[in-house]
Amino acid sequence: MGVSADESSEQKLPELDTSGRVIVGWDPEDPQRWDSKVAWKTLIVSTYSLFLGFCVWFMVSAIAPKLNEIGFDLSSAQLYWLTAMPGLSGGLLRLVFMVLPPILGTRMLVGLSSLLYIIPMVGWFFAVQDTSTSFGSLMLLAVLCGIGGGTFSGYMPSTGYFFPKRLSGTALAIQSGVGNLGMSVIQIIGPWLMGFGLFGITFIAPMRGDEGALWVFNAAIFFVPWAIVAAILSFWLLKDVPVKANIRQQLDIFGNKNTWYMTLLYVMTFGIYSGLSAQFAL
Q1: Structural domains of the chain, ranges and CATH numbers in brackets
Q2: CB under 8 Å to 34, separation ≥6 — which residues?
Q3: Which residues contact 124 (CB under 8 A, 6 or more apart)?
Q4: How far is the C-alpha of 12 from the C-alpha of 3, rounded, in Å?
Q5: pLDDT at 270 over 80
Q6: Which tens digit of pLDDT belongs to each residue from 109-166?
Q7: pTM attached to this predicted model
């Protein structure tokens, strides 16, 4: 009896092996070639990192309202520009991060992104301590905060590689929902963190605000240790699936009219509410 083409193809697929950095024989639609523990572990670690990314993304919206109070001399227009730039740069960086999952792999993408979060946080930590810091420097740091929002378009498809279609909606909803909480968390705890010394760095003199001493730099430095933890967990626990695609192959989406319909819808929903929430404190 002859063997069908489908059966022959099935026989050639390697057995599932998750012991190495790159998973062999991975197929989420085949229960024999899918490991739920690997999938959910990937979701947890990447969601934790994405949560921190969204905290970084909206960090400026928590800091900007306090800048003039601690001695900066910025106009209303300049303050609004500072809080707007992370949204603008984050949107543009999503065009970059969206093509990176099959190129870098999940492990490298999440690990490097977690380390990139540290750059704007450390930058703002030092910048707010010197009221002579130029507006241009503050704008650059605001642009770099967009990294936190840009990684979203890389994390979501990367996570999608690990789940069968019947669970991908649930997994991506958890990741996007918990990740977006970072926007609220930084705006809620940011002002609170500014009210006291943190991590034993009380040796740095607090700034004087309208209502007393302020440690504005706390909002920037607080998440640095957690970002380091995210990077360590990523390089230690995450794995890559054998998905490869070059940039040109991925840009085919721009020829699909549905891409533009969904983009317009996204601008009118998430884009507007996130933009308004970033400006609200001003």
Answers
A1: 35-242+250-280 (1.20.1250.20)
A2: 16, 26, 27, 28, 164
A3: 59, 60, 63, 141, 145, 217, 219, 220
A4: 13
A5: yes
A6: 999 999 999 999 999 999 999 999 999 999 999 999 999 999 999 999 999 999 999 9
A7: 0.89
